[in-house]
Design a protein that fits this description.
This protein is of the alpha+beta class and 636 residues long. The chain contains 17 helices and 20 strands. The protein has four domains: 118 residues, Beta-Lactamase; 114 residues, Beta-Lactamase; 86 residues, Helix Hairpins (Orthogonal Bundle); 150 residues, Heat Shock Protein 90. The N and C termini lie far apart (100 Å). Pfam families: dCache_1 (PF02743), HATPase_c (PF02518), HisKA (PF00512).
Length: 636
Amino acid sequence: MQSPSTTPRALAPSLTVKPRLIRRLLLPLPIILLMLACGYIAYYTSVQIGIRALAESGERQLELHARAVESEISTHTYLPSLLELESSVSRLLLNPTDYRRDQVNDYLEGLNRRSGSRAVYVLDRKGRVLATSNWRDADSFQGEDLAFRAYFQDAIKGKPGRFYGIGSTTGEPGYYLAHGLRHQGKIIGVAVVKIRLDPLEKRWERARLEAFVSDENGIIILSSDPTRRLKAVHPLSAETRAKLADSLQYHWTTLKELQPLTRQRFAADAELLTLPASGENAGEEQPISYLAQTRRLNDPPWDFTLLSPVQDVRREAASHGMLAAVACALLAFLLIAWNERRKVIATRLAAREALLQANNELERKIAERTADLRSSNERLKAQIRERQQAEVTLRKTQDDLVQAGKLAVIGQMSTSIAHELNQPLAALRTLSGNTVRFLQRGALDTASSNLATINELVDRMGRITGSLRAFARRSDDSGDARLGKAVDAALFLLHPRLERTPLRIHRAYSDARLAIDQTRLEQILVNLIVNAIDAMHGQSDRQLWLDGHAQDGHYRLQIRDNGPGIPPSVRVHLFEPFFTTKPGEQGLGLGLTLSASLAAAAGGNLSVQHLENGGTAFELNLPLLHQSPAEPSRDE
């Protein structure tokens, strides 16, 4: 029986959602404003934090480079007073003669060369140069009248003369240190040392540091940017300009003012400056903003200013602002989507209530179909019973798989025992055959020795089975083994094989006591050497290297051959049980698996390296009992 169809027209008109066009058109505007506000707040906050961090870093650099400037000057402050101890200088000032002038010139030339200064010279009381270190140069100071210099006027009065200026003779800038030379308590002349400070600028340039030093007049005398040199950091009055022009301190240079495009005070000794770009392409580049931090030097009274670019800080802050704006927009869109979702859910709930009302009217018709539902219910119950039976069967199958896994492990261990005993049995077979022949010949001593060896091999087979049982129980994994003894025993077991297959063995290891059972170590070595011999099958040049050394409480022994190597497709399966590349029944695929397990049980490991020039190297890493260096074994 079909139920009457219901159409959307049956829903109440109040349940429909009408879009509000005006609200949707106006909604993006506050979202955009909120995005801009969040972006600006994040940008401003990031800029402030970044500039503070830049200021803290700048304080450390400011202190370091300011001390460097003071140190550069202080290393030469003793030189002028040193001339007071030279008797030839005093005699020249008291009684000038050509001989005494030449004598002092030579002395000053040597002193200047040893001290690394620019020039050293001596002036009489009238300010005329009597002797100078650059007397051989064409622009020598000899005979110059420097009485107008401020450093001479201070030194002749008994004060320390300190002066930065541009030389009137050479036009070369420098810092002058002057000292009044006394004789019997009276000043008879002045000693002057001129030093150059441009090495500081070169150091700043190599360090990519932007900085400048301004003197007591506010003139930049040192700068990492040559275009800023000899510019005033603050406006100069006409009187100051006239005074500086008369003193010729800066020669005939026109003192321009360093005019920042913008200036903003950031702290007591720091401000934000925007300076025009300098260099060849200054007109094409954008202005650069700096954090300018200034520190007053102790001696001389100059100001050291460090300029830290803030472009990176503002660029990072811009990215933070963009991220904040995007995050704000995403959050706003999520809220809008949630609100729309809430409206849709409310609409659906209202529609559901209407459908429930319509469903109540159809209850009568549903009763007529109860019989069909009951039969369907029976079918479902039958399906449930079938699924329950399937679950029981699945559980039983899982138990059988677990039991099969246990049997597989038992089979693997039994095969391992056969693999472990195969090689000692081969040695027993060889020794017993030789013993019969020696007995027939009457060589009783040799036969007795072979029987003793057979007895040792039998004992060793017993130790092998005991070791395998201990390995299965994960007990008694440690021991005390001698590496040299284990190598000799392994080679002895393989002696018949080595006779049939000529092999050159290179030994480069030291005997050591290792924390592993002696039999287990011998078995590992036998497996690795046999694999190497099999790998070199078919080639005439067969060589085997045994290299070892102690490192960090472990001993690393490398067994390396010159065979063709292992194909890449096989490498991932090397340590898997029952995997072998040997044809027929030559191998069970358990040698490397057992060797790796024995090494791991002793606290070590077994790894493999695939050499580029051919061959394979297995590295056995085992813990040492104690370090006992010995002579390396010789090649065989």
